[in-house]
Amino acid sequence: MKKIDVACIIDDDPIFIYSVKKLMKLANFCESFMIFNNGQEAINNLTPILESGENMPNVILLDLNMPIMDGWEFLDEFTKIKAHKEVVIYVVSSSIDPQDKNRLKTYEAVSKFIIKPINVELLAKISEELIA
Question: Which keywords does UniProt give here (predicted)?
Fold first, then answer.
């Protein structure tokens, strides 16, 4: 299976980040990953990367509920960045609120909504979708 070059995790939960990194390694999912603990940290670091087109993430796993800048605010800012290529965003949240799902439909950049937790099979499916 071909690996994704760079995956980006934006989440404030250290346990979730630790487990997803472990699962990505088990699934042979990506060559490397970027990790940000909130949307503001992600925007500050991703903006120059996206604008330059170098070492861009292929996929972002985004939590909605975070301090400082939440996932919604991140999406609003992310859509303003002029990126050199499309970055696929999967919203990964523990929210089961139907309003969240409906609101996500207004963001073209969001590919799917995934309810936590993530497993190896799901990562394999994401990898297939991205590399196909």
Answer: Phosphoprotein
- Length of the chain counted residue by residue: 132
- Model pLDDT for residues 23-45, shown as the tens digit of each residue: 999 988 999 999 999 999 999 99
Over residues 83-113, the pLDDT tens digits come to 878 899 999 998 888 898 889 888 888 888 9
Helix (H, G, I), strand (E, B) or coil at 60: strand
Give Cβ neighbours of residue 91 (< 8 Å, ≥ 6 apart): 62, 63, 64, 71, 104, 110, 112, 113, 114
- Is residue 11 within 8 A of residue 93, CB to CB? The reply is no
Please indicate, yes or no, whether the overall pTM of this predicted structure exceeds 0.70: yes
Q: What is the CATH number of domain 4-119?
A: 3.40.50.2300
User: Which residues touch 51 (CB under 8 Å, ≥6 apart)?
Assistant: 81, 82, 83, 84
Domain ranges within the chain, ordered by starting residue: 4-119
